[in-house]
Structure formats: C-alpha cells, structure tokens
Amino acid sequence: MAPTKAHRGAAALRIGVLLGLLPLVLAGLQRPAPPLRISSLKAMLFYSQTGAFSADLFGPSAPTLHNVRTGVGQAMATLVVIEITGPPDTYVPTRKISFAATAGRRALLTKTLDVGLLGEAGKFHVAFWLDDTGCTPVVLKARIVGQSDDTAVEKTINFKCGD
C-alpha cells in the first residue's frame, strides 16, 4: 500500500519538528562555560607631582596611608586593577565584572564592565580609576556576574588624615 499524501505530510511535519529541536538538543550537550574567578585586587596611589604609581596598597611594600593628599608625594587618586583568571582563551559574553568603591556613605564609583577574552595565560585585567581619595577609608567590592559561582572580593584601603 502506497503512502497517501496525508501520511507524507505527517512524516514531513515530524521531521520538521525534529530538525527544529536539534539545535536545542545540541545546546544541551554543550559543556557549561567554566567559572572565572578574581585572582587579585590591587590598588595603587597616583602621585600627582611625578605621574608615578605607588606599590600595591595591599602588598608588603605598601606606602603609609596617612595624609597622602598633603604630604610629600601628594596622591589624590587611586588606580584599582582586578585580575580575573580562568581557562586560557575563554570568552563568555554574559560574564561581567561589577565594581563598587565607597568612602563612608559616599559612592566613589559603581560600574559594571564586560570581561573580555582571557589571554594565553588565562588572565584578563580590568582597571578602575578613583578620584578624590586619600582621607577616608575606601571599601572596594568586586564580583563576577553571569555565573553561579560566588566570586565576591572585598578590601578596604585605610586612608587617614589629621595629626
């Protein structure tokens, strides 16, 4: 018995539905993107008189953070550099770095930026510039968004002014 036109139409419909589902099935077979992590958060004073940067404020060679705005080697701005690590050559368009810096109740900066393609060493660096720093402690908070793994990092720069 030869297939009727109705049978051929139903078979074509089933094949069409299966072909339509194929991309969804293949997407389900793909491995999830590996998690990224914040491997370091560094902060450096910008010395206005020389245009140079200090050692990392969280490192062993950190300068004294008392009266940095008025003392020798004035510094009224801070550069924050966040290092993100993961598998080399990884890029996930939904991954972003969220950063906030506050001095007391005052927000110095709140920003979210894309995490680009990690290099051959599996690293990507993001920089944030903070103006008007130097007398009030500054709380830095960073987090990678767009993944389920918690990656929050928080550090405080203990600026002080006065006698």
Specify the CATH architecture of the largest domain. Answer: Sandwich
Question: Total strand count, please?
Answer: 7
| Structural class assignment | alpha+beta
Tell me the CATH topology of the largest domain: Immunoglobulin-like
Helix content: 10-25%
Q: In the CATH hierarchy, what is the superfamily of the largest domain?
A: Immunoglobulins
- Residue fraction in strands: 35-45%
Radius of gyration, Cα only, in angstroms? Answer: 26 Å
Strand and helix order: HEEEEEEE
Task: Report the average pLDDT across residues.
Answer: 87
How are strands sequenced across the largest beta sheet?
A: 4-3-6-7
* Broad shape: elongated
CATH class of the largest domain: Mainly Beta
Number of domains: 2
Number of helices: 1
Give the CA-CA distance, first to last residue. 102 Å
Largest sheet: 4 strands, antiparallel
pLDDT < 50 stretches: none
